[in-house]
Amino acid sequence: MPTTATDRKKPFSGRLEIVRSDAAFDALQASWEALVSQMQVGTPFVRYDWCRSWWRHFGKGKRLAIGVLREREGEVVAIAPCVISPGASGSRRVLQHLTWMGGVGDVLVERMDFLVPNGREDELAPALLEFLSRLEGEWDAIWLPAIPSDSKNLPHLSVALGKVGTSDGIADMHPCRFTPIPTDWKAYEGARSSRWRRNLRNRWSTFIDEHQGRRCISGKDMPHGEALDHLARLHYLQWPGDSSNFLRPAAWAFYRENALRWLEEGHALLTFLMAGDRVVSAALGLIKRNAFSLFQQGWDPEFKTLSIGNLAVHWSLETAARHGLETYDMLSGDCRYKAEWCPELRQTLDLEAYNPESLRAQTFVVLRKLNRAIAKLKGSAETAPAEAEAAA
């Protein structure tokens, strides 16, 4: 991450305010939506309806802390979509975190940034980030996960975090697979191995011929609500119990409510595959600025030998192409099947800082370093006998 910010051509002469109330949050809607359309990085998680719904579902026990930058005439030119919240688990629960809407809790953002118009980051980001020091007496820690590594706000955020807190900078990095959506399918398939192409053709043939397989789209072949319920059922078959946050009651209530609206408005696509009358896979993707983000999937383990998950990805990719979308994004996480479909790679960063004036924060930092040092020593002690035995 860059450690110095680019010099601004001129200082910003407007004013910074902190939005605290629901009414003031509601009043930002038009400005918020306009800024999202002007940002460098388009992501569905910065949209007003996502953030407003997240606050309504998960705001209990948290405080609004939305940084808003206005021109002298009152026009909103930048927004920091933040809240102050206790940490999610463990010893972090005693710390008050300044974080994104979706930075903690049952529903977490996959990609997030400050709402600053593309090309004005050097002018506006430093002024907007003054909200960190404005709120300094209210937070023990700053936790800003899932920031795109190519964000033009990052150099300014690095400087701001260094001013207000003690920071190790990047707490974690997450790979994100993506690919330009092909307009020439022969060229796209030709870039893969002959074995990959042969396996895909054979699995489609077996699925269609032996299982009466069909490719379907929510809203066309089945009502959106029914299709979403199948997605939940199939997702649970893959990740039963509490192994996935997606189906925890509070999270599912949020996702189902919003997905219904996004699908109706054309901000999402839900594709599914049927074997006869049985839904055997489903894939939900969110749409923002000509990009399709594969958000959640589910498939029937009984069809594992057909690699039904890969068929589901293929069908969602093809559907995204038919809708004229340009980028297919698999969001955070890396694994073999993602690399096969999306060879290009980018990253998101989790950034943190701790308030040097907070005893809780500094105690947490010291204890965490101590625990990590002990764990490292234990790991070294456990590997030494094995290495000695192997050497003998």
Q: What would a concise description of this structure say?
A:
This protein is α+β, with helices and mostly antiparallel strands. It has 13 helices and 14 strands. Helix 9 crosses helix 10.
Structural class call reads alpha+beta
Which strand order does the major sheet show?
2-5-6-7-14-8-13-12-11-10-9
* Main sheet properties: 11 strands, mixed
Rg (C-alpha, Å):
23 Å
Q: Percent of residues in helical segments?
A: 40-55%
Low-confidence stretches: 1-8
List SSEs in N-to-C order. Answer: EHHHEEEEEHHEHEHHEHHEEEHEHEH
| Number of strand elements | 14
Number of helices: 13
Determine the mean pLDDT.
Answer: 91
Strand percentage, roughly?
25-35%
| Termini gap | 44 Å
Query: What's the quaternary structure here?
Result: single chain
Outline type: globular
